Amino acid sequence: MADSSAGLDNGRPDGFIQFGAPIALSDSDPIGWASLAFMPPYCFTPSCIAGPALRQATSARLGSPPEQMILRIQNQVDLNQQRNWRFPSMTDWTNALRAAYCQNQGRTGLRYFMPAQSSPIHGIILNSRFYDLTSVGVSVRDWLWSAMQTPDQVTDLVEEGSLVQELGVDPFACPVN
User: Fold this and answer.
1) Which domain holds residue 94?
2) In 3-state terms, the chain is what percent helix, strand and coil (to 5)?
3) How far is Cα 114 from Cα 48, in angstroms, rounded to an integer?
4) CB-CB neighbours of 45 under 10 Å
């Protein structure tokens, strides 16, 4: 389960892939993270440090048994991630998140809980939002419970919301709840 960790790349030289990959994949001190040894054997390229590519590569190995899955929990407005990964604006970050979702929608073993709250939220599962925050009328708690009880029946709960009007983001390019 991943909470508020989309791992999106802004497509610029200061982005997750161009700036982060040399650090993440290097085992040289003092800044190398030596993460190459921990990467899946089927995805070694720099783009694999970014969440969407890594989840796509991992998906082929998930789902059998149905308990093997990645559950993504992410509000669509997250100031921490927008700033940390140097997206010029919240609109740019949210558009990248929505595009990444559509890229991986329906893949085996990947399930998403993505409410469309217009106020920034970073971190959902370790506070009262676990009980109170909903997507398509279902709380995070109830969604996770259903994933544990009937993993082969859990579905994505992703809202379009009013972010197109409020923030000027693009609508999802794929069907959502």
Assistant:
1) 2-6+48-167
2) 40, 10, 50
3) 22
4) 13
In a domain, 21, yes or no: no
Query: Within a domain: residue 79?
Result: yes
- DSSP symbols for 33-101: --GGGGS-TT--SGGGGSHHHHHHHHHTT--SSTT--EEEE--S--HHHHHHTT-SSHHHHHHHHHHHH
79, two tokens: 């100031």
Query: What are the pLDDT digits (tens) for 57-113?
Result: 888 888 777 778 999 999 999 999 999 989 999 999 999 999 999 999 999 999 999
Q: Which two tokens stand for residue 7?
A: 């791992």
Residue type at 62?
L
- Please count the other Cβ atoms lying within 10 Å of the Cβ belonging to residue 38: 8
pTM: 0.88
* Residue 133 belongs to some domain of the structure: yes
What 17-20 contacts at long range (C-beta under 8 Å, 24+ apart), as own/partner pairs, is 17/46, 17/47, 17/49, 17/50, 18/46, 20/49
Nearest by Cα to 85 from 3, 164, 158, 18? 18
